Amino acid sequence: MAIETVGVVGGGLMGSGIAQVAASAGFPTRLREVTAALATQARGRVERSLAIGVGKGKVTPEQRDATLAHLTVGTDIGDAASCDIVIEAVVEDLAIKVALWQEIDRQAPPRTIFASNTSSLTIADMAVASGRPDRVVGLHFFNPVPLMALVEVVRAITTSDASVDAATAFVRRLGKQPIAARDTSGFVVNRLLIPYMLDAIRAVETGVASVSDIDTGMRLGAGHPMGPLTLLDFVGLDTTLRIAEIMYTEFRETRFAPPPLLRQMVTAGLFGRKSGRGFYDYSAEPPRVSAFLSR
Ligand code: 3HC
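Above: inputs. Below: predicted complex with 3-hydroxybutanoyl-coenzyme A.
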């Protein structure tokens, strides 16, 4: 069950990163978006990331050109479905993912492995609905995909050994480090990371320290590359809220419960870097703590 061609469905931050990494590793890669305009944006994301890599001397111009030559971006789901593995990185909504897998199943050859980049939904739900429960795995990548070395390989109770082995070998060929995770909401990393980030918000709510001191504390006191509030802005507050809601619904444990400040910030459109403002205001360089938090 060797994987030679890669389909990626969803060309946002994660999907375009996954497609870039697959194409860089030499796989003919077909990235699918829903409209031509979104497909153009997705290709632009890959091109910008490669340009940064070239600027930093991490990617040669030849590697950039080879990556782009391996990448096809379009709107036909049949192109992605015809590959040996299809990885979905669409919105974190089970109903949307299930409908997508059912559509892909109608067009994909029987050998094709389906992989979800879900960060908090369980794979079994998608596997059972997909029509090929033994060939569905989770492949959870991390943002920014070209820089983060880890991929969680998730086995649902229906997944065959052959599918897990093929997916794990594929992750290694991407140059990433696989870890095996059980099919529980959040897998390994988000099970630990989401409560940590939510606790940082609670620390802000209860006035433990200022936003910048909480971040400095975890950077310099625990050696993290980013403090938790900077990381929240980086991941996206809307994304974090969605993940926390799914994990809280699954486990009913208060450590996963979204704090009120997170809900309020998402309601106000303060999503973090993507909207220009979250815990920090990115209209300034360097970014400064958002004004409402220093009042
Ligand atoms: N292509 C290739 N290489 C690149 C690059 C690019 N586009 N951009 C940067 N690099 C290289 C740099 O040259 C540098 O290499 P070096 O270490 O050999 O010098 C390295 O990557 C780091 O880049 P920078 O120096 O520009 O940036 P930082 O040192 O500030 O690191 C970061 C950036 C990697 C994002 C770091 O801050 C970090 O690790 N942050 C935490 C990210 C994190 O936790 N992500 C996970 C989020 S959770 C998630 O995704 C799960 C989801 O389900 C929520």
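The chain has 13 helices and ten strands.
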